[in-house]
Structures are given as C-alpha cells and as structure tokens.
C-alpha cells in the first residue's frame, strides 16, 4: 500500500515538475554512490519539498557570513519567491540552459550543487526581486556578498531574462542600467559597463540569443542585437546589429552569426562562409 502511494506521488511529481523530479532522482543516486556525502545531499536536496527551497538553501549556505547567517538570507529568498513565483520558472530554464550548453554538465544536479555561475545568477534573481520590493539595502548587501564569495558582480536593479547561462562566471561585472534578455550566454571576465561617470541609462542592452565570449567588454548604452556574437577579448563601443559577429579592439563587424541562437550553439568560431569584410 505504501509503495503504491509512493508510486502515485512520484507520477504526479513527474507530471507537475519534471525538473525537480529528475533532480531528486539524481540526488538519490548520488547518496547511494557517495555515502560519505549523503548528509550533504540530503540537507541540500532531499530534505526539501521544492526546487525553489533547495536552491535557496544552497545559495544561502554559500553566502552566509558572521554578519548575516544562512537562516536570515534564506528567509529573504523565501520572501522574494512569495513575491514573484516567476523566479522558479526562470530557475528551471537556467538549469536547462546549463545542461544544454555546457559539455561538462551531465545532470540537473550539477549546477544546483556546484556551478557558481548558476548560484550567482539565482542569487541575483532574489536580489532583483528584493530591489523591486523596496528592500534596496538588503539587495545591495547580497550583491556585495555574491561579489566577494563568487566573484560575480551584478547590480540588483538589472533585469535578466530566462534561460541565461554564465559559464565559469569569474569576473563578470554588470552595471545597474544594463538589460539582459532571454537565452543569453556569457563567459568569464565579461563587463557590461559604462563609459565614464555619466548618470542615467548608461549600460548595454543585450538582446535575446546573444553569445558573449570570455573577456569581452561592452561599454555604454548600446544595443547588442538578437542572435549576435561578441568574440572573446573584444571591446564593443557601438551598436551591434542582429545576427552578426563582432571582434577586435575596438570591435567591428567581421561576419554573420552562424545561427539564430548562437548562445545555444556556443560556437565561437568564424568560418569562411560566415566571414566578410564590410565597410564600417
């Protein structure tokens, strides 16, 4: 009888929340294979009823500090989730994005447990909700802790779409008036910054499906058009048209993007078919 009830509950969970169900199954396999880490996986995943509370617990444990304990941070995250249930949808899209785009990721469990790019992004989602709810000081405190603990510095005012992937993530800096739309991929040491001490709307707008290579700097209130690629190490100072590749210091258009969603293909190479040398 108990097994029958468990089977029905599992079937309902698979239908209602397949991401959480798969993650729990991966956690159970983890616990069986690594008994020395069974306590860790139970407290991080299996002890929780939802993906949202599990992720909130994991990130709070990474951000806790003598000034502010894990419990206080987790409570703030839970308030953010109550205020904006859409955070959970974005979280699931982000997990799927990591597994789709990162060749070293073989399980939903990996980003939730280990990947600081995923942790920094979810912490930002919580901080952004707190910012919008008028809790700016708490949001700024979280930004500071994420910067210190995870080496990712995103102003809490920045709106970020769903299905975003921050690969490696160390050294990412994103200014207060930047915008990042859905399905964007950003590698390490990327800056979305201003060009000086001007005020107002002064940071880049990254449209859907953009791929930004490692070490790229995009400066000023400029648009990077949907489906474009920014090559590693480039310094972008002018608008990037949609579906193009830019490279260089300063960056210029060097070719077409190979597909509508370079952020998903993660292809940083420019082939002869893509290349052209336009007059700028």
Automatic annotation (TrEMBL):
Pfam families tied to this protein: Hexapep, SATase_N
Cleaved signal peptide residues: none
GO molecular function, one term: serine O-acetyltransferase activity
SMART domains attached to this UniProt entry: SATase_N
Pathway info: Amino-acid biosynthesis; L-cysteine biosynthesis; L-cysteine from L-serine: step 1/2
Reaction equations catalysed: L-serine + acetyl-CoA = O-acetyl-L-serine + CoA
Enzyme Commission number(s) from the entry: 2.3.1.30
Residue ranges constituting the Serine acetyltransferase N-terminal domain according to the UniProt record: 19-123
Record key words, sorted: Acyltransferase, Amino-acid biosynthesis, Repeat, Transferase
Top-level enzyme category: transferase
The organism's place on the tree of life at top rank: Bacteria
Keyword Amino-acid biosynthesis: yes
Family designation: Belongs to the transferase hexapeptide repeat family.
Protein name: Serine acetyltransferase
Species this protein is from: Flaviflagellibacter deserti
């Amino acid at each position: 009888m108990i097994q029958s009830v468990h089977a029905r509950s599992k079937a309902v969970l698979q239908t209602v929340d397949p991401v959480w169900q798969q993650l729990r199954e991966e956690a159970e396999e983890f616990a069986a294979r690594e008994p020395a880490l069974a306590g860790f996986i139970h407290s991080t995943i299996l002890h929780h009823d939802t993906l949202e509370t599990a992720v909130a617990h994991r990130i709070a444990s990474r951000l806790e500090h003598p000034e502010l304990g894990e419990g206080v941070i987790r409570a703030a995250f839970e308030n953010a989730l109550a205020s904006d249930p859409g955070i959970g949808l974005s979280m699931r899209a982000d997990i799927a994005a990591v597994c789709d785009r990162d060749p070293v990721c073989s399980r939903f469990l990996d980003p939730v447990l280990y990947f600081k790019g995923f942790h920094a992004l979810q912490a930002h989602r919580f901080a952004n909700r707190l910012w919008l709810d008028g809790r700016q000081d708490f949001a700024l405190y979280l930004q500071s802790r994420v910067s210190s603990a995870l080496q990712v510095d995103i102003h809490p005012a920045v709106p970020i779409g769903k299905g975003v992937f921050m690969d490696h993530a160390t050294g990412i800096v994103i200014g207060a008036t930047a915008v990042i739309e859905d399905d964007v991929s950003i590698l390490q040491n990327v800056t979305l910054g201003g060009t000086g001490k001007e005020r107002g709307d002064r940071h880049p707008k990254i449209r859907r499906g953009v791929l930004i290579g490692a070490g790229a700097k995009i400066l000023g209130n400029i648009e990077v058009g949907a489906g474009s690629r920014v090559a590693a190490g480039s310094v972008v100072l002018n608008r990037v048209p949609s579906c193009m590749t830019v490279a260089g210091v300063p960056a210029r258009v060097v070719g077409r993007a190979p597909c509508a969603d370079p952020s998903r293909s993660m292809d940083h190479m420019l082939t002869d078919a893509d290349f052209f040398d336009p007059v700028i």
